[in-house]
Design a protein that fits this description.
The chain contains five helices and no strands. It is mainly α and 193 residues long. It has a domain of 98 residues. The longest helix is centred in the first third of the chain and has 43 residues. The mean pLDDT is 84.
Length: 193
């Protein structure tokens, strides 16, 4: 009789890994290499986009054409300014600049309505000629001057974050507000109806 065989101990199996440490290290190195290549591609893409944006910004300054005031093509005069709020103004200030543009347009319409009221008053009372003449002056003077003296500095200030342009805007806008209060009072013979 032979003595019973002792069973051999089972081989320990490592269920947590599929290979040796060398193959795990090689896989990790390959993964790092792929990630690094992907990061390099993304960095090159971002650099390319940045160069395109810089070229577009520099190119637009030379290529962009003035578009304000909008004039028909057959008009011998050409627009004087370039104005594009969604392109030039940062998004957080676009609503403010648009509101100020609408305020400027409202003041222009108000001056024109003042002119029409003075014209109507002059048609009824011919002694009101000086008021009618002054209303013409106010329309011709305040419309372009308000655009150039407070709207454009405000537009430039928000576009380039210029403290000087903010100062000019606030000073001129304050003076014009005082003049509008005087217009609202309607001093006789001043051209304000």
């Amino acid at each position: 009789m032979q003595p019973p065989k002792k069973p051999s101990p089972p081989e320990s199996k490592n269920y947590g890994s599929y290979g040796t440490q060398e193959s795990t290290a090689a896989a990790a190195a390959e993964l790092l290499k792929q990630q690094q290549e992907e990061l390099n591609r993304k960095a090159e893409e971002l650099d390319r986009r940045e160069r395109e944006l810089q070229n577009a910004a520099l190119g637009n300054a030379a290529i962009r054409q003035n578009n304000w005031p909008p004039l028909p093509s057959f008009c011998p005069m050409k627009p004087c300014f370039y104005q594009d709020i969604p392109v030039e103004i940062p998004t957080e200030f676009q609503k403010t600049v648009s509101s100020m543009y609408y305020l400027w347009m409202a003041s222009t319409v108000t001056l024109f309505l003042n002119f029409l009221a003075s014209l109507a008053w002059f048609c009824v009372d011919t002694t009101a000629g000086s008021g009618f003449g002054l209303s013409i002056l106010w329309v011709l003077l305040f419309t372009p001057c308000s655009f150039l003296c407070w709207y454009r500095p405000m537009y430039k200030a928000f576009r380039s974050d210029s403290s000087f342009n903010f100062f000019v805007f606030f000073f001129i806008f304050f003076v014009q507000d005082i003049l509008y209060v005087l217009q609202a009072i309607g001093i006789p013979g001043s051209g304000f109806r």
